[in-house]
């Protein structure tokens, strides 16, 4: 049924999107061609760029996952199968639109050209890590790339995104905000605050709900999926809502673009449910065989988004398997090179981290006396433990 | 000399900052059109517009969460939480987000919020309009907690808080919004208009966060206190003719440890007073610090006078409140050592 | 641990008094306390030291 | 348009209530007659009982409000104009169905026969107060009447009601739970938790949203009313939803009955928006002239529910103005008598409260040492302040 | 002798109570089918059914709120909060509701919840999987807070907590779920299977809340400690050959004040150790109590060894953790007085 969903005008009344909340916007058909009013009509270069980001994030995930298994860091999370929900969506935004991500949107950083080595430095918590080794791996932040600091606390980013969007509106700025949240996390009160504030203030924001059908071991039913769709949450607040095949890169792009145009036109916020599937475990701490069958992944609901985009480009006559193989290889090599480079800055637990004194910095803008005293104590401890070793400051 | 009550002083501080800095915005339940249930924001929406002073949904989580986002944008939000008792739904956004944002993002983003909230009891508000939860905030690295005790300080501290680039919890002792309550609830209340600390200069001034005020110099014992209880402590010492050094802390994090040490080293005795429940209250931290830092100057155990470890009971409010008798007993005990 | 054989008074010396005792080199068991329950006060120790004709020591210890 | 709204079967799919979430269930027409499928067909005795409760709560509110103004207590809240949303709703429930109220449901206690004097004792925080003077006036609790302890913290009762209903279901109990929450309070995360848990566990619960259009000084738009209805929140979760004229006692009764039957049949939870109007100030601490026009009340959106029920009974030939006047008088006298009686137990701040020692009881089941010590201190204080006076214990 | 690790001991306590009391139910994120991210509830759903052990939406507010309602119904819920760092969204339901329900309803309703939650660091969990927020709960009248340090105690205390009619926060030191970590992170970890305190009797037993355990008798100084830090303190004292009396508090509210007083009166010196941030941590309360109650027995200032007042930094975790060097320094200082 690709191409069958109507596409209302971006500035329509929210209620006009009601049916779309129960449907599934699809563009790519079984014939690998784009169909219907949601076809974003992207040119082949853009599609190839998108495919390149897909390949890169997959290569990156593979290597980082292995790195964790090899003890180079404490933790990693893949986004396998969900690449389109971050990359294709981000490509539909302006590069300075503000992102309030959850933890599975590494694709956005890659799409925005954030250097791989910076990502790896963060994952290794090494001395090159811009976040000074303070955050769990993958909890990136980049102001330069309009990418908000990732929090370990689920859904807290959602009202923050709305607040940012409100601020942008107050200032007459044209930038909008977009946030990503897992379907499981929509149960948090923060998400409700976000929807309420978004609707009350008509904030220029996009609320992306990534329904990958799992929240660690819990099927999406525990967030309410057996009673209605997550897109239908939008109806409850009078927000515009869209439900999109999250494994259809063109559909994701089109939906996000629709919402971005709507927000920028001051026509209001949109909640988008991206229906997708978490193909891998929740994180390196997780073993999904304890709660779901191994076949589930093989059946890969909705199809692999990378394959679907590739096949589309091939169907357009703009791509072939050889180029794909070459690209995959190139990505793997780029990642490998970046990894090697980052490893020069150290890996977790091997001493090459930020200087100890940095631990006390940035708790406040200025160091209060009690942290000064504690820093002195930490320094003393260091000198006792490793006399004469690495400098404190 | 121009005298204001505490609400007027707070309103003036807000007005000054809003006028001076277009990035300051005010939000909260009933703060906009109506001007706040305690009138602290009265007139500000009319003057500064609905874009900058606005009512919010009843969601403390949303209020703080949105303010964090606004701060990340570059605004300087001053959210109001209508009563401190209602701050808990917003606590995660304060503790996990605002307090740690600068640190976790290595200064990519900051949260220059000033969260204003009336706190404390003595107004027959029952258990959900009387709490003093300052200790919870003091325990959270990254937050600053400010508590004024006079109109003069309220204005200067609030201006400093708004200008501060760290998230500040600004607790306003609602019992003394209109008059400096001394704890003698059965005696007439002196209005601010005749109180020395209600002289509030026009225009902008600020009082640095982390600097205590010596409310009264003395030699016999040191009293560490803040908010409403400053006035109660003063009244009791006056009544008893005790030559106490009364230190109004003003900011509990960061704390003015120098003032505390200097005083306790001089007096050798220390009394700590707060209205909050006792166990793990901020008085415990003060007591621990004094013992750690002034031990060999102590001539008597550090004493704490606090609210009891019960909810604030509506009809027995004055039995709960750490009033003159409780404070007097502790002073007697200290002075007899 | 506290010297369990010490006199009653030594068990009730406040830290400040103990410091005064050390600084002034007086024997606390020889002084009569004027504090609560006959406890020694810092003033008692200083008075005893004065009576002994000692120079008051500079308060710089600890 | 009374009587025009369709009434689906109680066990219908939630989605079948979608249109009702945007409509307004009404039974009483301008002709004061009952119309349509939602007519609960109550017999005249029941209607008179209902009217009696209406009259009583109004008399009670009047007198208690005055009592506060006379300094007999610290606080009072009226429910004027909203009587049907509690009384008519409660009458549609079984008497042992569990109520998780907000603070404006005094009508439920009256409908359930809770003695007026107990209410007044609580309001006066006197020595007769079953809550031992611990709670702000009107924060009642009565286990005997299956009425949960009222909290000052908005919306916290809503997930509690769902939890109670889940427990009832776990135990195979036939009792259901019902909760009341103001439209303003629906913005709290607790309400979202309630809706989420209700839908996920299909809990036998009714979520009554009282949309009285005001939250202290804030118009319901600050809770989202300008974007959609509050009943539409139900759609967002896949809950059954109804929007009912909260000033139409028959419609309220019918809707609540529908939801109760649905819950008891294990067909799922219902969210009901009662559209009504807060005719008075928020509380005795509030002066609405600061934020809304005086005429607003005169226009009394939807009509006074008491008048509407009275006129209906008169139209049925089952009531007349004289009986109404007599009943009003009788209510006023009953309230007056109860007030006098309660005043013998004391009024706030005049010494006749529970003994001081009670202040330390019930913090825990048993008194821990630290509270024992604090109680001893409080006792000492008392003896110092009032030597020889009233006993501690 | 049967030995269990802490997870096994907790699982067994849950199983015993579920078997014995049909009103006990378990709920939380991932606790049902999967058996918990730390496997503490493994096998319980299969054994006791989906009605009594079930997964929940990711809403700590809803988990605690629903549990309060279930408690009011008459059940005895044992909700799990997946990490203590994620308890804040449920804090209002704990502080404003569970903690005050018995009081405000004058026993009409009670909240016999046992909220289990893994807490503490030392597992490279970063700032949102490492916090120790126990002080916040200690400040709230009406809550009890329990922290076991051994498999034996975990089982007995958890059974007591579930049977208790007051709301109990049961913090499980996740660092020692599998082995009693001594703080020497660069040395091999001794498994529970060889540790004396992993002997766990079969069947039901309970340990009263509010009774400390003298982990080690001694004369030289008193160490007040709980959770993971018990093992670190023991190791340091062993290493240094200090004749310390180590008191494992087990319950911080209510506190075993008698054990504390008796010990400090004996030793004259007191060290307090916790992993939580220092300012207004529970150590402050302990220090204040010791000063108030044992003042004239104190031969040295009460010392606190704590985590620093910063978020828990991922890569510098061991610099944050109050390990052997920090504790050793404090002991040296105390012993030199
Ligand atoms: C407030 C909070 N509660 C619980 C957790 C623990 N936790 C981390 S990820 C996760 C599952 C989230 O699932 P979902 O939102 O669907 O996102 P996904 O992992 O599928 O991308 C949970 C429960 C947390 N990080 N924060
Ligand atoms: C958590 C919390 N936040 C704020 C308040 C202060 N407050 C008390 S009543 C009220 C308005 C509630 O409005 P609504 O829910 O519409 O109920 P109504 O008064 O109209 O019945 C507010 C903001 C509170 N009691 N609890
Ligand atoms: Mg998910
Ligand atoms: Mg500031
Ligand atoms: Mg309302």
Describe this structure in words.
The complex is a heteropentamer, with 2 copies of chain A (393 residues), 2 copies of chain B (337 residues) and 1 copy of chain C (62 residues). Chain A is 41% helix and 8% strand. Chain A has helices at residues 18-22, 44-69, 83-91, 106-111, 116-124, 157-170, 189-201, 232-237, 249-264, 294-299, 305-315, 321-343, 369-385; strands at 98-100, 177-182, 205-211, 214-215, 218-219, 240-245, 270-275. Chain B is globular, with a radius of gyration of 19 Å. The longest helix of chain B has 15 residues, at 6-20. Chain C has helices at 8-11, 15-24, 42-52. Chain C is an all-alpha fold and 62 residues long. The chains are: A alpha/beta (393), B alpha/beta (337), C mainly alpha (62). Chains in contact: A-B, A-D, A-E, B-C, B-D, B-E, C-E, D-E. At the B-E interface, helix 4, helix 5 and helix 9 of B face helix 4, helix 6 and helix 10 of E. The structure holds thiamine diphosphate (TPP) (2 copies) and magnesium ion (3 copies). Residues 182-184, 212, 214-215, 278 of chain D line the site of one magnesium ion.
Oligomer: heteropentamer
Helix percent band of chain C: 40-55%
> How would you spell out the order of helices and strands of chain C?
HHH
Structural class of chain B: alpha/beta
How far is it from the N-terminal to the C-terminal residue of chain B, by CA? 43 Å
Low-confidence stretches of chain C: 1-7, 57-62
Tally the helices of chain B: 11
Number of strands of chain C: 0
Quick overview of this protein structure:
Chain A has 393 residues and is an alpha/beta fold.
Task: Provide the fold topology.
The complex is a heteropentamer, with two copies of chain A (393 residues), two copies of chain B (337 residues) and one copy of chain C (62 residues).
Chain A: H1 18-22, H2 44-69, H3 83-91, E1 98-100, H4 106-111, H5 116-124, H6 157-170, E2 177-182, H7 189-201, E3 205-211, E4 214-215, E5 218-219, H8 232-237, E6 240-245, H9 249-264, E7 270-275, H10 294-299, H11 305-315, H12 321-343, H13 369-385
Helix pairs in contact in A: 2-3, 2-11, 2-12, 3-9, 5-12, 6-7
Chain B: H1 6-20, E1 24-28, H2 44-48, E2 53-55, H3 60-73, E3 76-80, H4 91-104, E4 114-119, H5 134-138, E5 144-146, H6 151-163, E6 168-173, E7 213-216, E8 221-225, H7 228-240, E9 244-248, E10 251-253, H8 257-267, E11 270-277, H9 282-294, E12 303-307, H10 317-320, H11 324-336
Parallel strand pairs in B: 1-2, 1-3, 4-6, 5-6, 8-9, 8-11, 11-12
Antiparallel strand pairs in B: 5-10, 7-9
Chain C: H1 8-11, H2 15-24, H3 42-52
The complex binds thiamine diphosphate (TPP) (2 copies) and magnesium ion (3 copies).
């Amino acid at each position: 049924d690709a191409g069958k969903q109507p596409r209302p005008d971006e500035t329509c009344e929210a209620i006009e999107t009601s049916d779309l909340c129960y449907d599934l916007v699809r563009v790519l058909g079984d014939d690998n061609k784009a169909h219907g009013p949601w076809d974003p009509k992207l040119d082949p270069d853009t599609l190839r760029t998108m495919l390149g980001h897909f390949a890169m994030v997959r290569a990156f995930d593979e290597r980082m996952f292995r790195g964790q298994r090899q003890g180079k860091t404490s933790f990693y999370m893949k986004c396998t199968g969900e690449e389109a929900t971050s990359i294709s969506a981000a490509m539909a935004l302006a590069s300075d639109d503000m992102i309030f991500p959850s933890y599975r949107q590494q694709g956005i950083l890659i799409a925005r050209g954030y250097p791989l080595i910076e990502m790896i430095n963060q994952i290794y918590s090494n001395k090159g890590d811009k976040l000074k080794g303070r955050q769990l791996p993958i909890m990136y932040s980049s102001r330069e790339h309009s990418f908000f600091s990732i929090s370990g606390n689920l859904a807290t980013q959602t009202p923050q995104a709305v607040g940012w969007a409100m601020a942008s509106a107050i200032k007459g700025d044209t930038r909008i905000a977009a946030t990503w949240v897992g379907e499981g996390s929509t149960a948090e009160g923060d998400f409700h605050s976000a929807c309420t504030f978004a609707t009350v203030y008509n904030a220029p924001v996009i609320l992306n709900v990534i329904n990958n059908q799992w929240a660690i071991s819990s099927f999406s039913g525990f967030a309410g999926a057996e009673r209605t769709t997550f897109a239908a949450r939008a109806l409850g607040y009078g927000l515009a809502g869209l439900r999109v095949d999250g494994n259809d890169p063109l559909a994701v792009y089109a939906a996000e673009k629709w919402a971005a145009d709507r927000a920028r036109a001051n026509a209001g916020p949109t909640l988008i449910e991206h229906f997708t599937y978490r193909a891998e475990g929740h994180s390196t701490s997780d073993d999904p065989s304890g709660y779901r069958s191994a076949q589930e992944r093989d059946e890969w609901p909705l199809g692999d988004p990378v394959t679907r985009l590739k096949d589309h480009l091939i169907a357009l006559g703009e791509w072939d398997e050889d180029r794909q193989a070459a690209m995959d290889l190139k990505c793997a090599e780029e990642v490998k090179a970046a990894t090697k480079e980052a490893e020069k800055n150290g890996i977790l637990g091997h001493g090459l981290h930020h200087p100890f004194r940095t631990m006390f910095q940035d708790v406040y803008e200025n160091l209060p006396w009690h942290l000064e005293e504690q820093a002195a104590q930490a320094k003393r401890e260091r000198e006792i433990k490793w006399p004469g070793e690495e400098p404190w400051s | 000399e121009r005298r204001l009550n505490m609400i007027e002083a707070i309103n003036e501080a807000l007005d000054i900052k809003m006028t001076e800095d277009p990035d300051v915005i005010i939000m909260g339940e009933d703060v906009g059109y109506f001007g706040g249930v305690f009138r602290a924001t009265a007139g500000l929406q009319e003057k500064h517009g609905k874009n900058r002073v606005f009512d919010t949904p009843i969601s403390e989580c949303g209020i703080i969460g949105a303010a964090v986002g606004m701060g990340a944008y570059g605004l300087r939000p001053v959210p109001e939480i209508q009563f401190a008792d209602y701050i808990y739904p917003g606590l995660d956004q304060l503790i996990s987000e605002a307090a740690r944002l600068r640190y976790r993002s290595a200064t990519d983003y900051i949260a220059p919020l000033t969260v204003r909230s009336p706190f404390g009891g003595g107004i027959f508000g029952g258990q959900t309009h009387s709490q003093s939860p300052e200790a919870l905030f003091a325990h959270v690295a990254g937050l600053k907690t400010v508590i004024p005790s006079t109109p003069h300080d309220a204005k200067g501290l609030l201006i400093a808080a708004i200008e501060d680039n760290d998230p500040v919890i600004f607790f306003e002792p609602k019992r003394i919004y209109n008059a400096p309550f001394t704890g003698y609830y059965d005696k007439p209340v002196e209005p601010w208009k005749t109180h020395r600390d209600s002289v509030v200069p026009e225009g902008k001034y600020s009082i640095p966060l982390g600097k205590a005020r010596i409310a009264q110099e003395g030699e016999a014992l040191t009293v560490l206190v803040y908010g409403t209880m400053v006035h109660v402590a003063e009244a009791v010492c006056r009544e008893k003719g005790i030559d106490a050094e009364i230190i109004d802390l003003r900011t509990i994090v960061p704390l003015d440890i120098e003032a505390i040490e200097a005083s306790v080293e001089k007096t050798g005795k220390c009394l700590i007073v707060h209205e909050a429940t006792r166990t793990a209250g901020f008085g415990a931290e003060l007591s621990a610090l004094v013992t750690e830092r002034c031990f060999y100057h102590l001539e008597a155990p550090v004493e704490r006078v606090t609210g009891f470890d019960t909810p604030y009971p509506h009809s027995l409010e004055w039995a709960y409140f750490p009033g003159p008798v409780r404070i007097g007993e502790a002073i007697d005990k200290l002075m007899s050592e | 641990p506290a010297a369990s054989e010490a006199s009653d008074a030594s068990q009730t010396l406040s830290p400040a008094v103990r410091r005064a005792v050390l600084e002034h080199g007086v024997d606390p068991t020889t002084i009569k306390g004027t504090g609560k329950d006959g406890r020694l006060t810092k003033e008692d120790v200083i008075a005893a030291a004065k009576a002994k004709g000692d120079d008051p020591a500079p308060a710089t210890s600890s």
